[in-house]
Amino acid sequence: MATPATSPSTEAGVNAYMRQVGAAAREAASAVARAGTRAKNQALEAMADAIEADAAALAEANAMDMEAGRGRALSTALLDRLELTPGRIAGMSSGLRQVAALPDPVGQVSELNRRPSGLEIGRMRVPLGVIGIIYESRPNVTADAAALCLKAGNATILRGGSEAIHSNTAIAACIHKGLLAARLPTHAVQVVETTDRAAVGALITMNEFVDIVVPRGGKSLIERISAEATVPVIKHLEGLCHVYVDTHADLDKALEVTVNAKTYRYGICGAMETLLVDREVASAFLPALGARLTQMGVELRGCEATRNVLPGTAPASEEDWHTEYLAPILSIRVVDGLDAAMEHIRRFGSSHTDAIVTEHYGRARRFVQEVDSSSVMVNAPTCFADGFEYGLGAEIGISTDKLHARGPVGLEGLTTQKFIVLGDGHTR
Amino acid sequence: MATPATSPSTEAGVNAYMRQVGAAAREAASAVARAGTRAKNQALEAMADAIEADAAALAEANAMDMEAGRGRALSTALLDRLELTPGRIAGMSSGLRQVAALPDPVGQVSELNRRPSGLEIGRMRVPLGVIGIIYESRPNVTADAAALCLKAGNATILRGGSEAIHSNTAIAACIHKGLLAARLPTHAVQVVETTDRAAVGALITMNEFVDIVVPRGGKSLIERISAEATVPVIKHLEGLCHVYVDTHADLDKALEVTVNAKTYRYGICGAMETLLVDREVASAFLPALGARLTQMGVELRGCEATRNVLPGTAPASEEDWHTEYLAPILSIRVVDGLDAAMEHIRRFGSSHTDAIVTEHYGRARRFVQEVDSSSVMVNAPTCFADGFEYGLGAEIGISTDKLHARGPVGLEGLTTQKFIVLGDGHTR
Questions:
Q1: Where are the domains of chain B?
Q2: How far is Cα A193 from Cα A5, in angstroms, rounded to an integer?
Q3: What pTM, to 2 d.p., does this model score?
Q4: Residue A342: closest CA among chain B residues belongs to which residue?
Q5: CATH architecture of the region A11-234+409-420
Q6: Which of A162, B160, B198, B385 lies 20 to 30 Å from A50, alpha-carbon distance?
Q7: Which candidate, B241, B296, B298, B236, places its Cα nearest to that of B272?
Q8: Do B256 and A425 touch (CB under 8 A)?
Q9: Which fold has domain B241-389?
Q10: B404 contacts A403? CB cut-off 8 A
Q11: Which residues of chain B have pLDDT under 50?
């Protein structure tokens, strides 16, 4: 929106265009950082109004993308993600209103103490500055990501997939209306208007204009961005989540937790991909689980010990322990005790979310302390890994990195803290 | 210490050696992460005992480095930093005991709340894993950095300057004794035993073995590390700190604050390098300040308006506004109001520490909210930017980055947080 230049066609042209976008974002960032909560909320509500009022225009723009996508023979899965159904359009506007209702993290002061020097020293939460979002197909990310970044006081540069360019441009027009209604600079949210891939390369290396990049999409996109970016990246590589059913598990709870962890939704990153079962309870637990999951259409792949208990189960290969299926498939491994379970998680896991089912206090305690994942759970299914469930409000993604933000990243993860030092002429 | 192999001589050999060091650190990291506070403190106290007992051996090793340094015609400044005086040796052991006395950050749980789902969800502070420290000349960093990283539950790989190799190896032997006394793995702290520069290149790109790199040293070292590292870096580029004397300043306080900010110590990153004075108070304020600083041997460089008030002052060039002197030199600029002062800081500052002197509530409030530096101060000199003064205990450095840790980085900055989710068979 408010394009600094017409869409360029050469790589030098793309770079120059992206630098204009970056400079405009950097300038807008100061104004957004200073903006009050009321102005930001007003903008978000006005964006929601615009999306509701322009629903027909959004559907029309999306129809162009869908038609072009069918012409380019996009897969059914991609076309499904690309589609803006009336429900998804309503979801965008309600998402904007939900972000408006969240508490504003900016300006929050914590740990303010009087020090022996007499100075009061504490930390103030402040925006990061300019955030770049790189995403594929789902055009509703345009509204969701813009809302979170704006509420956290940041300027945003959005780079969606080329297949969604008409939808994203139409959503950007609604965002633009909202910013104008609240008298915020329209460059606070910019949608990159060129579909040239060089724009991504420019975005992730403009360190003077961009403070952080959040890639949202498949593993290959995120690996490429991580490898090439010089701007820091909040990344979510994959969710290869485990549930370990301990010897001391209540097997009824274990059944409910594991079935829920696998079947709540197959496509989410918190879905269980590998089940680890202690050898001592394998024959008591697996038949009931196998029956439930098979009935629900889940394909099972097991280690040899699993296949002894559940004859007819397909064999799991080493490759299976490494695989995030995101599908109705579950690999099952029988292990010898807690240490073997934690060793499997350490070796094959993705540090996303891992759970133990046990009634044994000491084992629960050890699992929680020793498993090095962004979320560690006891007697709860991994599918709970979600910003809303954690009380963070909406999330921009789930970070499997250790630095800055780990686990679901909500408004707080889109801010940082500075120290404030208040004195009255003190000297050292 | 406990070298996995003899010091290699080819680049392939260095890489293989560093990978052994990395793998040993990764393995030790799990044990250190699980170690109790008592064991870690016992190790730190035993290290301090060893340094005190082996003070003569340390001095002897250091004498070898000093002699070699003189032979290589190192500068007086470098030789000064390299020297282990009895005071500095005592400083290392008392530093170790101070870190032992700090609260252990590992395992601290915060924000644990019962959610609508019935689950209890909170955050647990956990170690980062393996930390690489790259530093120059000062051998006492070996003990200081190892202590902080160990207390925060991390394994450490220390790469000191080649000019300090004998001193560092002798300190490492004391650290080794301390780890053994507490039955912690000796690979929890490793000093890289080759002085080959390829070792640094390997350290900063071994993402599977190293979680974070902290370079401590000059700007060129840090810029090189930042450019080449694929492991995340906590970096401290420079401290180009400003004090702005506002129209509404109490000029007596302003005099004390600015003199202290410049002269407390010239070589620290929190030293004031540029003074900004509001035009309305320039002629009332500058003569007294000029007299005090000149008398203390500080060279002044001023803009035209400054030189009108303080005739004989050398002219400041654009280059001066960009310069971190770390020396008894001060650049002075007369500005037109708060916005001009903040604009100068935005343009020339290094986002380290900046201060305003004012009695005006609204201007203090705006300065605190709008200046985007790691520390923002009111009526206090910038030289207070320090982990001890902030109540963080010792610091590993002062980060001018926005992500993860900002400002003085103490024990907390050497840890991260994971989510813990406690249920009783809940499903979604």
A1: 11-234+409-420, 241-389
A2: 10
A3: 0.92
A4: B30
A5: 3-Layer(aba) Sandwich (3.40)
A6: A162
A7: B241
A8: yes
A9: Aldehyde Dehydrogenase; Chain A, domain 2 (3.40.309)
A10: yes
A11: 1-5
